[in-house]
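Build the 3D complex.
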Amino acid sequence: MKALFVNGSPRENWTTAQMLEKAMQGAADAGAEVEMVHLYDDAFKGCVSCFACKVKNSKTNGLCAYRDALTPILEKALAADVLVIGSPIYFSHPTGPVRSFMERLMFPVLTYNAKVDPETGAVKSTILDRKIACGMIYTMGCPEEMIAYCHYPEMFAETDKFLNMLFGYGETVYTHNAYQFDDYSKYDVADYVEPFRAKYREEQYPKDLESAYELGQRLVQKAKEE
Ligand SMILES: Cc1cc2nc3c(=O)[nH]c(=O)nc-3n(C[C@H](O)[C@H](O)[C@H](O)COP(=O)(O)O)c2cc1C
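Done.
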């Protein structure tokens, strides 16, 4: 049972990485062999629209045909039983490298020749014959009341929908009000921000870390049931 954790933050030990570490602990405690990769360690492209994965009798088998530094990470993700992708929210979306990673992970397993199961009517839009239990972890600076206002739940649900469709399972955990700097006095930020975040960090962040831990455990359990 292999579980891969993908850090889509440029920072390797801040909130996104901390949430991923907790999820990784949860997965390890549930019996998985765990590994973390940091997307910002390498330079790579998003989907280049070559359509090699859509050519008739394509031999790509779900692995993006475009070769660059992302290829080994895509190989690991496709071989995993559990995949957790962590991303900060940048301008209401996952970071650029996460978007690029997900385009190249998802497009080659998406078929344009979906099959309908004659008995159940279910549409199979993936070329994969196995499932990968997927989880998204998002971190963001905004407070709770901004989350709905910015339509983040819709964005989360849309990604979960694709993960479900292509890999068989997808769910989301998030934390907000994230600390952005160690020392707020050095930055040009309104005075009320740091105390507000300090309160959240003390009262709610430990619970969010626990949710990440439980996500790791739950996804391994899910993968074991397959
Ligand atoms: C370029 C940039 C854009 C950001 N845009 C948003 C945003 O749209 N909404 C939000 O809630 N936080 C936003 N943030 C805050 C980050 O999402 C937040 O600090 C996150 O937890 C950073 O993750 P890290 O600490 O793991 O690097 C932005 C930060 C940066 C650097």
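The chain has one domain: 2-225.
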